[in-house]
Amino acid sequence: MKTIVAHAAKDLRIEDRDMPEPGAGQVLVKIAAGGICGSDLHYYNHGGIGTIQLKEPMILGHEVAGHITALGAGVSGLSVGDLVALSPSRPCGTCRFCMEGMQNHCLDMRFYGSAMPFPHIQGAFREYITADAAQCAPAGDLTPAEAATAEPLSVVLHAARLAGDLMGKRVLVTGCGPIGLLAVLAARQAGAIEVVATDIADFTLQKAQEVGADRGINVMTDAAALDTYKADKGYFDVLFECSGVASALAAAVPILRPRGTIVQLGLGGDMTLPVQAMTAKELQMRGSFRFHAEFFTAVEMMRSGRLDVRPLITHSLPFGQCVDAFELAADRSRALKVQLSFA
User: Fold this and answer.
1) What is the pLDDT of residue 31?
2) Would the pLDDT of 269 be above 80?
3) CA 159 centroid distance within chain
4) Phi, then psi, of 68 in degrees rounded to 5
5) For the chain, what are the domain ranges?
6) What are phi and psi of 107, to 5 degrees?
7) 253 CB contacts (<8 Å, ≥6 apart)?
8) How many CB atoms lie within 10 A of CB 206?
9) CA pair distance 154, 185, nearest whole angstrom
10) Among 67, 152, 210, 236, which residue's beta carbon has the most beta carbons within 10 A?
11) Is residue 186 a contact partner of residue 309, using CB atoms and an 8 Å limit?
12) What is 154-287's CATH number?
């Protein structure tokens, strides 16, 4: 089978690997669609994410969906031909964090396409993959492209849970990549009365308004537009910070209401924060990292029609054009979620 392997920065290759066989409790899945994530782009563009660097060739990818082609012994509730979204979250289930219900902090996590441990955890950009039956979320009624967005949607649903009750709240979203746009969708679904989005690209801001933002502000060309929200100690109740850029967070602090909540999703490196201003406003800052149980919720919310992710999927390229796809995915002036088709 063919796989997409990162060897170093700007060194992406299509390579052959042996076909896997499903073991007991596993299924064999023929991948149909895979989304390129921000972390995939970091591996492609920089050879890693901050201090986490490639030490060996690694198959990329963790946003995937496909059809079951074979069942291992003891698998029930799934059938050959089923379309499934594959959760890349594979916690050990036995460490202290798993036992406390914090599987996303598992001490022995096997998350697809991660160079965090060594040997690296190989990813899912491959024609076939074996997966535990417990990873498979039935995705009937969805297209493979929609099902493959379950992973980033899960990230946002986890963040929304950490943000608390959003009913009637005013929400600011900084950074309008796929995660930011999904945060707009999730905030609206959770009852936010107003959602404002900021970015530095008009293309992504237009998309934010298409999916439910009341206003999009280009902070590169119209930074003064934020000043209208500074009166009376601020306006917004909740910030979803999805850019990973320190200046975006710093600019948001003056327009957050006292005792507002910051949920940090963006991972762009260490930040210098306006701690004194945050303290004086009694702001709560909550980091949000990955997900676990939210994955199946994400699939069900898409299947029920409560969340429509289709506007985010701007491009689909054959996996043989993976280099072109990665270059396109990095261009926020014309692309949001770029997917690879393995059909």
Assistant:
1) 98
2) no
3) 11
4) -70, 130
5) 2-149+309-341, 154-287
6) -75, -15
7) 274, 277, 278, 281, 283
8) 13
9) 12
10) 152
11) no
12) 3.40.50.720
Phi, psi at 293, each rounded to 5°: -65, -25
Arithmetic mean of pLDDT, 85-106: 96
- The Cα–Cα gap between 321 and 334 comes to 18
Over residues 50-75, mean pLDDT? 96
Reference 57, options 2, 103, 118; nearest CA is 118
| Residue-level pLDDT at 50 | 84
pLDDT of residue 343: 81
Give residue 229's pLDDT.
98
Distances (CA, A) of 143 to 31, 44, 162: 13, 27, 29
Residues 2-149+309-341, CATH architecture: Alpha-Beta Complex (3.90)
Give percent above pLDDT 90 in the chain.
95
What b/e readout covers 126-140, taking b as 16+ CB neighbours within 10 angstroms?
A: bbbbebbbebbbbbe
Task: Say what percent of the chain tops pLDDT 70.
Answer: 100
| Residues 72-98, mean pLDDT to the nearest whole number | 97
Yes or no: say if 254 and 277 are a contact pair by the CB < 8 Å rule: yes
pLDDT band with cut points at 50, 70 and 90 for residue 194: very high
Q: Which of 13, 22, 26 is nearest to 125 (CA)?
A: 13
Residue whose C-alpha is closest to residue 70's, from 141, 9, 124, 19: 19
Amino acid at position 115, single letter = A
Q: Give the length of the chain.
A: 343
Rounded to 5 degrees, φ, ψ at 236 are -90, 145
Residue found by looking up tokens 């608390």 in the block: 164
d(CA 294, CA 130): 22
CB-based contacts of 219-223 (< 8 A; 24+ apart in sequence): 219/248, 219/251, 223/251
Beta bridge partners of 307: none
- DSSP annotation string for 142-154: S-HHHHTTHHHHH
At 115-153, the pLDDT tens digits run 999 999 999 999 999 999 999 999 999 999 999 999 999
